[in-house]
């Protein structure tokens, strides 16, 4: 019996749905489900509405691919940003983390993935061709590769840097203030800001 089958009870379906969240196992999911039903039905309804609105209303910015409710995200729609810099990140969460540092005024390109040879994910699958086209547009003087400092993030930065440099585009990498093996999303803002300033 699966969560979506009509025979599954509503409580089981809720627990199964909660288990889809990262880091949430059977016990945590049960605790959340019982909490909502016992103490916070309004919260449960609010959550259901927010989830539906987000799942149906949020798409991708057609220019940088981050999450956006309109064709262009607020950053891409802002003519005051510095068009000479293009920062490449792996995920919309990474883009949001960089934005929160308030230390970067250029535009972004969100890969929506990273190179992972073991999973058969190459540069083609993460939008490299589109990135090269975007970086070749007039005005871009530097592409800052801000993929994670994991093995896959490093591999991603490496192949993209080679592709960019072979086209005469300057590519820099975030400096190593960021701990090895870390997801950018979880790095503190000061470290990210420092790494951004010290990029090579
Ligand atoms: Zn955008």
Automatic annotation (TrEMBL):
Annotated family: Belongs to the RecR family.
Protein name: Recombination protein RecR
Toprim domain location: 84-179
CDD domains in the cross-refs: TOPRIM_recR
A GO biological-process term: DNA recombination
Pfam entry (one): RecR_C
Highest taxon listed in the record's lineage: Bacteria
NCBIfam families: recR
Keywords: DNA damage, DNA recombination, DNA repair, Metal-binding, Zinc, Zinc-finger
Chain intervals annotated as zinc finger (C4-type): 61-76
InterPro entries: DNA_Rcmb_RecR, Rcmb_RecR, Rcmb_RecR_Znf, TOPRIM_dom, TOPRIM_RecR
GO molecular function: DNA binding; zinc ion binding
General function of this protein: May play a role in DNA repair. It seems to be involved in an RecBC-independent recombinational process of DNA repair. It may act with RecF and RecO.
